[in-house]
């Protein structure tokens, strides 16, 4: 009797050391993303990964602390790449694309992102704090790269780092309250950066030169023009009721 051949069942393949370690880190990252570190146990990591608890300790002798730091480093690597978007188009569009990636990461990682940035966890150490600060510095460097600035002065450097802090704060508020859509939050943060640079430019020549060069690449009907138009409208005297 003829018929369709039985589907071949793929043979079991033992994971290499690097593959198993990566699997455990990815599993832990998913768990830490949905719960604060104190609520994640090694037993749960082992169960989700389909391995034994002793095997987890074999790869991470330091227990949950070491596994948390590895998962945090993995998440930090992803966050650092959020601002690494193609260097084409106006600055406001580049920042918009970067924020789309950043805010999507925030939305996906929920409680884990909150714990990562807020700190205060019992598993927080100088090492984990350094990892988080490294993300902030990397994001600032990417923004400065998009601004074509290699050696920022104190005004511009502080302005960019302050904006990164604002992005974090607004992301956390959005997680807590959920009143703004990601698109609304993205557009607001891009416009906040433009407004912040405008104020900084009144104090710093380097920022003023950079802002003039960046503005020249903005389309006449783009984000920046719309912001200026709305700002002028908002500051115009209100009509007097007759």
Features:
single chain, 242 residues, mainly alpha, 10 helices, 71% helix, 0% strand
Task: Describe the overall structure.
The protein is mostly helical. The protein has a domain at 74-232: Orthogonal Bundle (Tetracycline Repressor, domain 2). The protein contains ten helices and no strands. It has helices at 17-34, 42-49, 53-59, 63-82, 91-118, 126-146, 154-177, 182-201, 205-216, 223-235. The longest helix is centred in the middle third of the chain and has 28 residues, at 91-118. The chain starts with 16 loop residues before the first helix and ends in a 7-residue tail after the last helix. Mean pLDDT is 83; it is low at 6-12.
The CATH architecture of the domain at 74-232 comes to Orthogonal Bundle
Query: Class of the domain at 74-232, according to the CATH hierarchy?
Result: Mainly Alpha
Strand segment count: 0
Order of helices and strands: HHHHHHHHHH
Largest sheet entry: none
The outline comes out as elongated
First and last CA, distance: 94 Å
Provide the residue-averaged pLDDT.
Answer: 83
Q: Could you list the spans in which at least 5 consecutive residues all have pLDDT below 50?
A: 6-12
| Number of helices, counting only DSSP H or I runs of 4 residues or more | 10
- The fraction of residues in strands falls at under 5%
What is the assembly state of the chains in this entry? single chain
């Amino acid at each position: 009797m003829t018929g369709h051949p039985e589907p071949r069942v793929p043979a079991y393949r033992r994971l290499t050391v690097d593959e198993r370690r990566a699997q455990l880190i990815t599993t832990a990252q998913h768990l830490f993303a949905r719960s604060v570190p104190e609520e994640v146990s090694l037993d749960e990591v082992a169960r989700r990964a389909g391995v034994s608890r002793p095997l987890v300790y074999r790869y991470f002798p330091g227990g949950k602390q070491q596994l948390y730091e590895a998962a945090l480093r993995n998440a930090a690597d992803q966050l650092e790449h959020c601002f690494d978007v193609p260097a084409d188009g106006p600055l406001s569009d580049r920042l918009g694309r970067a924020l789309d990636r950043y805010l999507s990461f925030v939305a996906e990682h929920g409680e884990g992102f909150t714990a990562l940035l807020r700190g205060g966890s019992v598993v927080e150490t100088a090492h984990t704090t350094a990892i988080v600060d490294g993300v902030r510095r990397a994001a600032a460097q990417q923004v400065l790269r998009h601004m074509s600035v290699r050696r920022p002065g104190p005004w511009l450097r502080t302005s960019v780092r302050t904006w990164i802090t604002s992005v974090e704060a607004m992301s956390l508020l959005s997680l807590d309250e959920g009143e703004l859509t990601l698109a609304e939050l993205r557009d607001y943060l891009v416009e906040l950066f433009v407004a912040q640079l405008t104020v900084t430019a009144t104090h710093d020549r380097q920022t003023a030169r950079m802002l003039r060069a960046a503005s020249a690449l903005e389309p006449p009907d783009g984000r920046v023009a719309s912001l200026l138009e709305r700002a002028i409208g908002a500051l115009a005297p209100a009509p007097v009721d007759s």
